[in-house]
Amino acid sequence: MKVMNIIHDSVVDGEGLRTVIFFAGCPHFCKGCHNPKSWNIRNGTEMSVDEVIEEVASNPLTDVTLSGGDPFFQAKEVCQVAKRLKKLQKNIWAYTGYTFEQLLASNDPYKQELLRYCDVLVDGPFIFEERDLTLKFYGSRNQRIIDLSHLDSVGLI
Fold first, then answer.
1. Is residue 92 scored above 90 in pLDDT?
2. What does residue 38 show for φ and ψ, rounded to 5 degrees?
3. Spatial distance between the Cα atoms of 58 and 138, rounded to a whole number of angstroms
4. Domain-embedded: residue 73
5. What's the CA dihedral at 123, 126, 132, 137 to 10 degrees?
6. H-run or E-run covering 76
7. Which residue from 78, 92, 99, 124 has the fewest beta carbons nearer than 10 Å?
8. pTM more than 0.85
9. What one-character DSSP code corresponds to residue 8?
10. Does the pLDDT at position 155 exceed 90?
């Protein structure tokens, strides 16, 4: 899979101390994106699932945020990472330009599988005109922070 960067000890990409995996590739091209170089998947570095997990596990005190780009752009590979992260008992946040409803309606089974491993989803494209610097953990008013941790048990995902 293609990864832009992995950073440790973030406090702005979800609750608590987090390791953030920035994946390459994004189809949304949001005006004002904080990471436009991540749109092109060729800008990422090829990493295996094992390499990503090893880097995350090197900092055992943090939970994990999947960001990008858009982690759902490489859903097949990223869901393998998320599956392994859950075995390490990591809380997983994911940022995506897709809406929750678009992911649920997707014909891509890997997008739906990845959703099931996520505890929290920050959904929706960043809309520059709706930017709000007072929001915690997201950038524009159209985006939502959705607690997914209980949805699998009731059959919604």
1. yes
2. -75, -10
3. 27
4. yes
5. 40
6. helix 75-87
7. 99
8. yes
9. E
10. no
